[in-house]
Records
---
Amino acid sequence: MTPFTLKVTRLLEAEVTILRAIPTDADDVSAMLESLVAAGKRTSPGDPDFALNNYIVNPDGILCSVAVGPDGSILGLQSLKRATIGNRFDTPVGWGIIGTHVTPSAARRGVGARLFQASKTAAATAAITNIEAYIGAANLEGQAYYEAMGFRTYRTAEKAISKVFRMEGS
Ligand SMILES: CC(C)(COP(=O)(O)OP(=O)(O)OC[C@H]1O[C@@H](n2cnc3c(N)ncnc32)[C@H](O)[C@@H]1OP(=O)(O)O)[C@@H](O)C(=O)NCCC(=O)NCCS
């Protein structure tokens, strides 16, 4: 059976708003992350403290953006951080590290693509030249998403594939 979700109707521009996440979003971000856990698409924690400290107020954060749907619910989150010495992915220092999470009920509707537009702009402003995504080797939809955004395989390990997005002019 294919792990891929079906392509469904793209959300209209006006149906999704991309905003910088703020600390009071932690509970709603947590609910979105827990929906991924429940669907078997996430193994990392999804509680409000983790959402707050790992994504929303992370000291290495460049931009943590949320996609908000027409009813005000959080459909997805993308975090862009600066790689520092000793980072857990061994990403070259100064590169960006990106993570993307879209609730299964909104998947394949263009939310991730919208989030990446915002992250790319933030990366350019922060003078980031390369952005690395660290994706589970079995996570074919994550790999397909990053490929579609212009990331290309940079290195592989037994259980993960790293893809890099090279910013224009770098
Ligand atoms: C991977 C993920 C972030 C994609 O977000 P999304 O909002 O569904 O992505 P989009 O709808 O913006 O898709 C953009 C493009 O990516 C590709 N893509 C996204 N999901 C895909 C899937 N399930 N199968 C094949 N291609 C896919 C397609 O090329 C798509 O463009 P198209 O729909 O016009 O063909 C989302 O499914 C998710 O959160 N998955 C669980 C967590 C995860 O794997 N995160 C990333 C790796 S750590």
---
Amino acid sequence: MSEVKPFILGKLTWQEAKTLFQETEIAIIPVGSQEQHGPALPLDNDSFQAQEFAYLVADRLWPKIKTAVTPLISYGVSPHHMPFSGTITLRSETFIDLMVDVGKSLAKHGAKKIVVMNSHGGNTAALSIALRRLHDEEGLWCVVMEWWKLTADLVKKTFDPPHFHADEMETSVAWALGQRVLDEKRVDEPGREPVPGFTKPTMFPSPPNIMPIWDTTDFSDSGTIGYATRANPKKGQIVVDEAVKRMVSFIEKVASLN
Ligand SMILES: [Zn+2]
């Protein structure tokens, strides 16, 4: 989505931003990463997805429910991908400080509810610390929204496991959102297990699962963990459509909270 939309905070003047924060208490912060996504997806994939989802949702809500979409946080916590060229990671401490500073700035301008549109699983732990601080120190209502969790039922029905990284699930969703996909370069790598039987690579662990601190190279040589050759933009679109629908309906409810 390249047009200028009235919810894109970075495209507003300060006077327009002032008006927007008089009309809404909800800020959406897209958060991604700059990290390897196997041979078929670019490094910006998580960031691209976060921004696209944020824009799609804000656009669907406008003007009934107005939100302010902040500039993308394009770096995340990705030390586990550092063996792969082009990956840039923040330390968790830096990322937490960054999120807290962004949240405090938004609070100063009138935001009371922070919705983080996160597209990188490696950010989740640090986000919960940052948002806890914003909740406790600024009185902000905070939530993290992650498309794969919000649509886990549909994701499991639509895509083959492992549901992890640069796999059928992620490649299909990225493709549907308009990402650059090098389709001839897609590979399948189901993923080695560091401790066989206990450490399945998946976003949806079921027992017995004990995940040590891991590096991508524990699972994969190519950076893909899953079956990227099975990816398909039509299947991705099914999940994108449902994710947007559920995100919109969630934010409608958030807007009505006092
Ligand atoms: Zn990703």
---
Amino acid sequence: MTEREKASQTEKSAEQGVDTTDSKSLSRRLLIGAASLVVLVIVGISVYAVWPRGPQWTDSEVTLLRSLWIGELAPPPADPSNAVVDDPRAVAFGEELFFDESLSVDGSVSCATCHDPDQSFTDGLAFSEGVGVTGRSAPTVIGTAYSDWFFWDGRKDSMWSQALGPLESPVEHGGARTFYVRIIDQEYRVQYEELFGELPDFSDQERFPDNAAPLEDPASSAAWAAMTEEDRDSVNRVFANMGKAISAYQRQIEFGPSRFDQYVEAVVNNDNAAMRAALTPEEEAGLRVFIGDGKCMTCHLGPLMTDNRFYNLDVPSVEGQDPDRGRAVGIQQVAEDEFNCLGRYSDAAPEDCEHLEALDFDDPDIENAMRTVTIRNIAETAPYMHAGQLQTLEEVVEHYNVWEEPGREIDLTEEQKAQLVAFLRSLSSEVILPDESGETASR
Ligand code: HEC
Ligand code: HEC
């Protein structure tokens, strides 16, 4: 390469160099522009995320709130033990049965006597009253379709088999199964046969005496024992089907959204004004106690605010009575129940009944344990606990505050207790009932 060529080469590179320098500075400017845009966007997003919600809820708290929201409630889980559970005709038939007072020994008691739609499907009593007085308080039937276990002690494993209990309880409806299937024969033949096929003829009083059932009452059990096995089976089947229809109705009853739910929706939508409109600052502070210092979510979780498990809360026994053994007795009863998931009147395959296979009779924690129940509409359903031992929500909160269970103790200030009670009151809502068409309607 000659000097000239070299020079020209250098010139060229210089020229190119100039070019390069120009495009470099351009892309640097672009880069700075883009970077500031990114920074702006990030700042914007964080301001947006933090600002409207205020500093009060962290992301993980928002996740907790959302998990309690009624809007997150899925439809009830399938009940393979009940083939008609989602049939609208069963819903309508079940509704008739639920409110029919003729389904009681003295014609005065229906399911609604103790599960009154106007009282959130409870009765406001410590001990429910039918034809006699029961030994426990009536929980609501709303939302129970989500549980594997029914009653405070879980002595039933389906909503349909649960319904058969009160019908034959001497203090609730007071009748025997032969008495009820005869009423179906006389009053409900059409509805019954549409759903379940041909109804046997129960009119023969000799074959089907009114008071026959395998109950503690000696006359009833003797009358039952005197029947043929075939007749007993056909009575049992119709009796079980009554429960299946009632269950289809109860399954459709829902909690509407409470002010608490409106609040969570507002939090999720970053709508500060709607948050303020939904809960007062005191209720909002109570919500913080509920998910935090109160440790309530250990057991009251999910949109129905229950884990449906069994715990001994050391609730005081009823005066003059032995402690209620709760689950320790219920676990035996459900295993032996002829109407359980594995029984011949269940529509389930054995592999659908894993909850029964998994029962642990030696679990020391089942002694005196009761099932966690929903606390939605709790302000409407005093008194509280399985025998209505606690009269007010203040007493309930105080009970938890002095409860000395390792790992579960809490130590709330007076202010926090009042806030927690205020929050519990914000959980009230309308009850949504199924209407004739099987759709839902508000009450
Ligand atoms: C005399 C009042 C009374 C009548 C009548 C009555 N119940 Fe109940 N119900 C109760 C009581 C009390 C409990 C709790 C009993 C227990 O756990 O031992 C209960 C529990 C229940 C539960 C369980 C709820 C849960 O959380 O586990 C359901 C469901 C239910 N009843 C439905 C019915 C149906 C259906 C009928 C009509 C066939 C009916 N009840 C009739 C008082 C009554
Ligand atoms: C270890 C589990 C557990 C924890 C923690 C817990 N609960 Fe409960 N809750 C239950 C059980 C079980 C019952 C029913 C007990 C009974 O009747 O004997 C119940 C019952 C209730 C009832 C009465 C329901 C009714 O219909 O009678 C209210 C109200 C309640 N809890 C609120 C709370 C609050 C508020 C907290 C937090 C301070 C809390 N619970 C913490 C398990 C728990």
---
Amino acid sequence: MKENIVLVDLDGVICDYNKELFKNNLLSPEEFYAETWKELNISAKRKKEIRNFVLQKGFWSKLDPIPGAIKGIKELKKMALQVYICSKPSVYSWCWSDKYEWIMKHMPFMKENVIFTRNKSLVYGSYFIDDSLKELSKWPHGRKILFHSNKAIQYSSLPNDVFRVTSWDEIVSFFQGGETI
Ligand SMILES: [Mg+2]
């Protein structure tokens, strides 16, 4: 099974980006029906408010971990999997440092296992766990695992090569079950 490299997205899989928008009344869970707020059919004024909020330095420091994520990553590491966080920061320098600081605060044991890139499709691995079907669709290397954390998104159908999970317990079970590509 190749080298058992597991790439894990950060926002929406490990840290709860959307919850911070809900907590600050910028969006409601029901209206967040797309993968990113940029795709929502809301006014330009509201998008600007959201943009200003998420692009503040320190935004990531406020984010909570997704339930079960940190424990789940520890479980995967125990299974002799090579686990890497693979995230695509915005083109603002502080977004890159904010994300790294978040990792150092919540999961310092991953400090050597971080890949930041603007093009995830260039990153090789055996598995990719991401909450973005768009990103997974562009990734050509291995097994694609969709972390369906945003319940407002309804997928009428999924590509055959995408396995859907809704929690970290399911991710751990997937790998405990000895799933192979
Ligand atoms: Mg994401």
